[in-house]
Every structure is written in structure tokens, then in C-alpha cells.
Design goal:
Elements: E1 20-21, H1 33-38, H2 52-63, E2 69-70, H3 83-87, H4 93-99, H5 113-129
Antiparallel strand pairs: 1-2
Length: 130
Amino acid sequence: MRLLPSLCGTYPYPNLNKIVLCEWLSAASTYKKSILEEIKSDENFGKYSWNEDQDLSHRIFKKHPGSLFLTPYAKYLHEGSSALARARRGGFPNAEWVCEREVSLPLYPKMSTKDMYDVIQAVRSILNAS
């Protein structure tokens, strides 16, 4: 997968049948904590920005060539995205086990104090309801 100057990425899907090196990754990516401590998200991007995931991963690629991979073997289940995804429940038991126990909070560099307290209040409301 290459990242073009327009920030449009080339992508081998749907014919991806092996692990491939790439120059960028999409938002559904996993990085080592040390990499994210070394290479920060660009704070000039707004709250929800177009291609910020490509920008971050491409900067990681430039600093650490040969470190990004795309695999057809990693799967994730996005709850509520479609009836088809719900129909496949049970198809990815390990990922589903993690998803039932994991919480992802919205965090980004320019998050305002008010937004932070909104997230805290939402988490408290969920915890108090259970």
C-alpha cells in the first residue's frame, strides 16, 4: 500500500491474501506505545480530521521504514455497523471476547476541557446505570 501525494492511498483489497508491507494504515490500526510516544498526532488537525490516520502512519513509516504491515488475518467486529455484522456474531470469538471487555475513549490532542468532562460524565452515567 502506497500513500500518494494527494493523501489518497493505494489498497490491495479485495485481493489481499497475504501480509504486505505498507506506507500507511487506516484508523483501525495498532501501534506500540513507544512509537506513539515518539511520533505524536499532528495537533494542527481538528477534532475529527480527514486523513489524520494516514498522516500519522505515514510519518511512522518514514521514520521506521518496513515497520507497517497489512494482514488479511486480523479481523474486528464493529457492533451496530450493519445487520450483516451482527449476523456474523461468533465468527471471531477472540476479538469478541476482547471487545466485550475493552473500552475505547475518544481522545485527541486538541480535546477541550469541556469535551473531556463530557466523556467523563458519559462514562459515569454508564457505570451508574449498571
